[in-house]
Amino acid sequence: MAQQYRITLLPGDGIGPEIIAVSVDVLKVVGKKFDIDFEFQEALIGGAAIDATGEPLPAATLDTCRNSDAVLLAAIGGYKWDTLPSHLRPEAGLLGLRAGLGLFANLRPAKILPQLIDASSLKPEVVEGVDIMVVRELTGGIYFGKPKGIFETETGEKRGVNTMAYTESEIDRIGKVAFETARKRRGKLCSVDKANVLEVSQLWRDRITKLAAEYPDVELTHMYVDNAAMQLLRAPKQFDTIVTGNLFGDILSDAAAMLTGSIGMLPSASLGASGAGVFEPVHGSAPDIAGQDKANPLAQVLSAAMMLRYSLNQPAAADFIEQGVLQVLESGVRTGDIISPGMKLLGCQAMGKALIQVLEQ
Ligand code: IPM
Ligand code: MG
């Protein structure tokens, strides 16, 4: 009998619906090949949810996600909602989803595909062979620390406040994920912090250092975040696995993504201790090209592959998709974000069709 999975689809905003549609088509092909039966349910998040219900994360959406085996999310946000107060913005929906599902570990791989080496803004010899995994803490740090808000001082001046805080247990659980991840890769872990200035980082460094004793096979180094940003651009091949807090991880994962030529190629996995994981591209909703059939659907498709690997335990199906993506690029087709001379330009739907043709061969 076919293995059955309930997948919640969260298309969100901007290019979201276009790239989710391609991923669903791809998953259907994969389902046939690997005897997997996907039951898809769509739910609202972000601006689309604000427009329909007034809130960025309706309770029904969180329920649907909790009752599924995994969640495939596209992207949220757009100009239209940019002036709303922060708790009503699309971004609050995404943060609420991460917190509501307890997704404390965010895995963001940045791997150079040889086919795309010319799409990188860095020299080929600098980026060739880059294969980095950023493990970003996702439900703590300055994104969630209290106090937060815009308050009035005694003199009547406004003062914006956020708090960067980590408890020992929050550091330990993300640290363990990072050491385990490094162990399955090349055995090198670089912990990124700002321990020369921030107390929260001093505690972070202490705990990560203590954990290292349990992973003698992993080589641990520490780096300040400003230096890490520089080293990522200067000599990215020195990195294997990076572990860092929520804000530093947000910034460094965009930088790492760009090494590969386009943020349009990179998937991510957000995982908790148990329950449904959320799989989403690292890129955003790209409102400037929404609805124009110009988006690159491959990061979303590769997110579906991560879903098969990390939440559904279907590594062969994940490999199949990843190989298909390499092959379709090999055939010389490109979306606008990764186009280079001599390649054929395709829109979002056509790229999806080209991929499916490869997968069905
Ligand atoms: C990301 C995004 C989000 C974040 C935004 C949209 C809230 O930039 O997933 O990296 O800051 O975490
Ligand atoms: Mg980001």
Topology of this structure?
Layout: E1 3-12, H1 16-34, E2 36-42, H2 46-53, H3 59-66, E3 70-75, H4 90-100, E4 105-111, H5 124-127, E5 131-137, E6 145-152, E7 158-163, H6 168-184, E8 188-193, H7 199-211, E9 219-224, H8 225-234, E10 241-244, H9 246-259, E11 267-271, E12 277-281, H10 298-310, H11 315-330, E13 333-334, E14 344-345, H12 348-360
Helix pairs in contact: 1-10, 1-11, 1-12, 2-4, 6-7, 8-9, 10-11, 11-12
Bound molecules: 3-isopropylmalic acid (IPM) and magnesium ion.
Residues 250, 254 line the site of magnesium ion.
Question: Can you tell me about this structure?
Answer:
This protein is an alpha/beta fold. 40% of the residues lie in helices and 22% in strands. It contains 12 helices and 14 strands. It has helices at 16-34, 46-53, 59-66, 90-100, 124-127, 168-184, 199-211, 225-234, 246-259, 298-310, 315-330, 348-360, and strands spanning 3-12, 36-42, 70-75, 105-111, 131-137, 145-152, 158-163, 188-193, 219-224, 241-244, 267-271, 277-281, 333-334, 344-345. The strands form 3 sheets. A 10-stranded mixed β-sheet has the order 2-1-3-12-11-4-5-10-8-9, with helices on both faces. Strands 6-7 form a two-stranded antiparallel sheet. A two-stranded parallel sheet has the order 13-14. Helix 6 (168-184) crosses helix 7 (199-211). The longest helix has 19 residues, at 16-34. The mean pLDDT is 96. Residues 250, 254 line the site of magnesium ion.
